[in-house]
Amino acid sequence: MKRKSHHSETKAVRGAVDLRKKNGPLATPIYQTSTFQVADNEEQLRATSTDHYYTRYGNPTNTVAEQTVAELEGVEAALTFASGMGAITTTILALLKAGDHIVAQRDIYGGVTKFLSQWLPKMGIETTFVDTTDYEQHARAIRPNTRLLHLESPTNPILRVVDFKKVAALAKQHGLLTLIDATFGTPVNQRPAEYGIDLVMHSGTKYLAGHSDLICGVVAGRADLINKIHDTRTTLGNCMDPHASWVLVRGLKTLAVRVARQNENAQRVAEFLSEHGKVRRVHYPFLKGHPQYAVAREQMIGGGGVVSFEIEGTGEDARRVSEALSLFTLAPSLGGVESLVSIPVLTSHLMIAPEERQKMGVTEQMIRLSVGLENADDLIADLEHALEAVAVAQHVQVG
Fold first, then answer.
1. Using CA atoms, how far apart are residues 4 and 335, in angstroms rounded to an integer?
2. Which residues are catalytic?
3. DSSP collapsed to 3 states, 228-284
4. How confident is the model at residue 396 (pLDDT cuts 50, 70, 90)?
5. What is the pTM of this model?
6. 98-144: per-residue pLDDT in tens?
């Protein structure tokens, strides 16, 4: 009999647990070991393909984290990595070879842009960057040797939303694999695999772990692809530590409730900013003025916990606003329970050339907020105070 599919909240808490088992530990054990003993050499041979052989190959604690994410994404399998960048780089190296070609969105995480544009060419793999929501440009960029569409949605930091149906159809037409960085979306707000996306990647550092105390990455998708990626991960060695996996499992248990609250808080923050006189533009998928609002509402449950906005003024004014905030802590990253603020041109997109940032629409006036679990009224009051303080400073300078 086919097992009943549970809702996201249930999968996050119980996704990798065999509910038929009795008299076992309620909390996931930490298998803090590098290797596993066997009774004889025949058992040793059988163990090599399991998570009871050597932790670089797999570990039971890691398996729980991986199965939970696979359940949340509604796919066959998942793999954990030492970082989000480790997840992306290992996946691409596992699936492509010299002479292959990638079509990638222009506005993706800066570290991935660097890997695609500076590292892969050394290995004979080329990348063509295209505008994120121009699907005709995607199609024109495809060559006979194109093997992969690399996507991100919502994007960092402008929060553009990719139409999953369109990119999946394009990939199917040309026989391409699709890999999406879905970190901002989370498996609570969106499930790209349901639309035909092959591989879904997360920087688990962010929402999956959720407490700003862990670095990790996850890739989820079809079992045949995950098996190929597993072989490469074993060779490169960027597997996750069992204790870190245990921390990830603990974070996953509260993912659904955290994301629901962050959706609510971010929506209120975005609406406040959209009506403020010192704010030029607000980027948030569930604001009606967002260019992909209709697509976001169709394929997302919530708008997510990230809001970015551009202030009326200079890059220096944006810095002043970020430094005048108190409840939004000035720090890179996102997705934790605490609200954070950063300036993309000084953090996530620092390594990208100014002319490329301009093509992406990432300006010096842009501020990115990761909205946490604090009271929304308190967060809005903090933003109002910071914006007013900078407005007063601008008035004094003019005077």
1. 30
2. 56, 109, 181, 206
3. HHHHHHHHHCCCCCHHHHHHHHHHHCCHHHHHHHHHHHHHHHHHHHHCCCCEEEEEC
4. low
5. 0.93
6. 999 999 999 899 899 999 999 999 999 999 999 999 999 999 999 99
